[in-house]
Amino acid sequence: MKRNVVLALLLSGLLVFMASCSSSESKKDIQMESSSTSQDTATTEQENKAETEELANEQSKVIPTNRKIIHRAELQLNVKKLENTQLIIEKKVSDYGGYIVESNVHRESEESISARLTVRIPEQHFQKFLTDAEGEAAEVLNRTVTGEDVTEQYIDLESRVKSKRTVEERLLEFMGKAEKTEDLLKISSDLSKVQEEIELIVGKMKYLENQTSFSTIEITMYENSVIVPGLDSKNLDTWDKTKKQLATSTNFIFATGSGLIVFFIGNLPVLLLLLLVGIGIYFGVNRMKKPK
Predict the structure, then answer these.
(1) What is the pLDDT of residues 276-288, one digit of tens each?
(2) What ranges do the domains of the chain cover?
(3) What pTM did the predictor assign?
């Protein structure tokens, strides 16, 4: 009987011990799984963060810090002395490192004269030059400023050139390794096309660089002056007019006399003949009238 009791107690203790061991192991497994899950989550977050930072870096490389903008302006000015104002503006163009593209002057009448200047000014002096030009005017009739952003266009050209350069390098490598004449001619033809495309793109890039480096400004100036008519001394010179009229009359008399002399002398034979005929007719008529 005692043995049975002891045996039962031993079995009970063994079961309790096994149950406690199983419980501790399950807790460890749960803790390990929880730790693994948290580590996986942290790793995923770090990867996402790294991808986000990489994308941000790529975007920052694409977005330019200095934008390329083509500036143009038109000014219409009323000035007091057009010639002096034009000389001052042309000097300012030279001082700012710019140059004159076109210059012409048009005189519509004695009271109205205008001039047109087309100049190119370095971009950094664009606003300053406009202010200086307006300062020389008596009145600013019109001021128009426009800007064209060509940054994306320029970046696209840069990417295309880079891509074409890569193709050019590969074709040069293939040309160096080519053994057949047919392959060499084909590669040479492709290389020529690529190089022409590169030159065309580079030309467009240089044009955009020039247009963004120098701003174009068209200036039209007007000078309107009122002319007060003065006394016409020619119309008031009576003595000169009298002498002129006397000379004209004298010349007319001499010309008429000269003409008559030339007429009679030049036609003397005809006149003599007519005179004789007339005399004959006269005497003939008189004889016929006398009574018999």
Answers:
(1) 888 878 777 777 7
(2) 69-151
(3) 0.53
